[in-house]
């Protein structure tokens, strides 16, 4: 209990007002330190457990956490602590993993995304995902953008599609670099350009939330800087949840940071608080480089 200190909201939390400072897990044996709950969350994760190998292995333990509107939430922690597992729960990517089971509840704008009525295709259009390695379709730059909107029946007329291509690529900071080669293969772009194309492809279907799993880990420092600036711009419109191994990156781009350890959410708070005034010994050890 001595490790549990009430967290003060910081100025960076202006948009997301804290509702509580210490959350008691259902088993009451462990506590998350900080501010897991906020006013008017976009997504609400409640008491989520994730099991692999038909229940043999538990990767996430009783995690509860809110994701706010127009914020960047960074998920950090040592390798294997469950960051990607939890991220994949947010758009049900784990459904495709044999022997994986998720309990608890996750809502998007109050609607249970694990309910029987939830259509997966609709969910994936509301909660988009950008992966570690840029993975454009083996199609033209234009087709990469138009594929999703056509699939979801969002846009059909050629002029509307052209406008969407321009808007999505502009938002992703790629338009000027590719406007004269829209019909060339996307695989001809550099790694950083391909990642921005994947972000443009995600934006094109107007998601509410964008999940990013180490989006810069395959990129050089210059391409990383471009993506980080882009993330900063995108949060004016979207909620972004980003897994990162780079603490510097979390500090540069995120509003709040969640620190995980062995499947437990140890601490969540404004990024400034987590890095400059961590409340839990495990967080302190991690950010000071003593662990991981
Ligand atoms: N498909 C799977 N089947 C079985 N166990 C898995 C599977 N995917 C992940 N795990 C296990 O779940 C735990 C959490 O893994 P996860 O990939 O979510 O961690 P992480 O924090 O994202 O790690 P990293 O930073 O190394 O990517 C680990 O023990 C991992 O071995």
Automatic annotation (TrEMBL):
GO terms for cellular component: membrane. Transmembrane segments: none annotated. InterPro entries: AAA+_ATPase, ABC_transporter-like_ATP-bd, ABC_transporter-like_CS, P-loop_NTPase, PstB-like. Pfam families: ABC_tran. GO terms for biological process: phosphate ion transmembrane transport. GO terms for molecular function: ATP binding; ATP hydrolysis activity; phosphate transmembrane transporter activity. Keywords: ATP-binding, Nucleotide-binding, Phosphate transport, Transport. PROSITE patterns: ABC_TRANSPORTER_1, ABC_TRANSPORTER_2. Residues 45-287 form the ABC transporter domain. PANTHER family: ABC TRANSPORTER I FAMILY MEMBER 17. This is Phosphate ABC transporter ATP-binding protein.
């Amino acid at each position: 209990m001595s490790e549990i200190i009430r967290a003060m909201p910081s100025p960076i939390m202006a948009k997301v007002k804290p509702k509580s400072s210490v959350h008691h897990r259902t088993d009451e044996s462990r506590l998350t330190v900080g501010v897991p709950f906020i006013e008017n969350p976009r997504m609400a994760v409640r008491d989520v457990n994730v099991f692999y190998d038909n229940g043999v292995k538990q990767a996430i333990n009783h995690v509860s956490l809110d994701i706010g509107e127009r914020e960047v939430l960074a998920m950090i922690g040592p390798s294997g602590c469950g960051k990607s597992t939890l991220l994949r729960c947010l758009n049900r990517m784990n459904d495709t993993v044999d022997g994986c089971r998720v309990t608890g509840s996750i809502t998007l704008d109050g609607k249970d995304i694990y309910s029987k009525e939830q259509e997966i295709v609709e969910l994936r259009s509301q909660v988009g995902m950008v992966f570690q390695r840029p993975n454009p379709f083996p199609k033209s730059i234009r087709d990469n953008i138009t594929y999703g909107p056509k699939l979801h029946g969002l846009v059909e007329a050629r002029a509307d599609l052209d406008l969407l291509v321009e808007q999505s690529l502009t938002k992703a900071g790629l338009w000027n670099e590719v406007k004269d080669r829209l019909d060339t293969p996307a695989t001809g772009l550099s790694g950083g350009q391909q990642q921005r194309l994947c972000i443009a492809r995600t934006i094109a279907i107007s998601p509410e939330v964008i999940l990013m799993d180490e989006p810069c880990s395959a990129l050089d420092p210059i391409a990383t800087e471009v993506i980080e600036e882009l993330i900063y711009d995108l949060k004016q419109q979207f909620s972004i949840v980003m897994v990162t191994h780079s603490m510097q990156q979390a500090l540069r781009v995120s509003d709040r940071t969640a620190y995980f350890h062995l499947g437990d959410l140890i601490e969540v708070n404004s990024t400034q608080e987590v890095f400059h005034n961590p409340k839990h010994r495990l967080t302190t050890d991690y950010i000071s480089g003593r662990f991981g």
